[in-house]
Amino acid sequence: PGGYLYVTRGLLALANDSAEVAAVIAHEMAHVAANHAIVRQEKLSSNQLGQRVVSEVLGDSASARVALAASQLRLSNFSREQELQADALGIRMIGRAGYDPFAAARFLETLQRYRALISGGGEPRLDVAFLSSHPGTPQRIELARRHARFFGAPGVGLTDRDRYLQGIDGLLYGDAAEEGFVRGRTFSHSGLGITFSVPKGFRIDNQPKAIVVTGQGGIATRFDATVIDQRSSLVDYMNSGWINGLDEASIAEDTINGLDSAHAAAQAEGWRFHVRVLRIGTQLYRFITAARPEETELGSVSDAITGSFRKLTRAEIRELTPLKIQLVTLEEGQTLATLAGQMAIRNNQMAMLRLINGLKPGEEPPAGTRLKIISN
Length: 376
Description:
Helix content is about 40%, strand content about 20%. By secondary structure, it is of the alpha+beta class. The longest helix has about 35 residues, at about 60-95.
């Protein structure tokens, strides 16, 4: 509401020219200019009041659930209208400023491909896409192209590609050192000197307050850390009340990779939990793995993740460096496959190379083209 706009490093890595970044900024400027945040807050307050009235009057009846769903849908539609309006206003802004108005559609295409890549190529669930606060990306792309045609055919306006790419050469990509690094199925933190891995088919999300692991069968693990008095026992800590539904009889102590550890089981609100803590000095590391009662792999997944937790060696700590965007020139006789092999990521190297350079499947840029790769 105050008009503050922020650009993330991840957005800069995905963009391929100044016009695409201008399109994103203009979109956010449009939200501010149209008072969308204020209007949405008013709508949200009204919606919450309506939900409270429905809940008090109808209780938990079928009628109440239908009314609440309809209320949620109205709010979702309202938000989608805001996003489409911001798209239209933003494209007018960049077109009038002399930038390529088709940049908005290009960047939305990149976001769509990125979403597909990180989700394993699958489509989002229908109910998630339908109730999203943003309209479906294909719809936004088509509408963005229509708005851009007001300024002319593709090719009109400034892109400023070369200067933009030069500007992000060397940009930090992905996690910073103080956040720890996710490399494929392994999380490592050089400052804390610890690492662990997850089973195949599971994904690690490095979030601000915790590491979240998600995978098959609806199993999820949360990993975080806290400080503990060295004189305190791990059994006492497990019994200190931070675990809802704890089965006190299940608490047991052992060691993992030379580290003192304790584990226990818990059950609450339709979920089963495997909880494990490990101590390194005054630092306590906590793993909470959750699954529905019918899930039979909870124990094996929990053991696989926590059993991999260990201290990093000095050599491993020295080798842990942030990734960065590196600008390269495609030389005569060089192929995209060659550049993909230089990418400092383990999975989907070719797909990611095409994605961050805005290259469509099968597209082969000519020699002399400047491209981004992800390097150490």
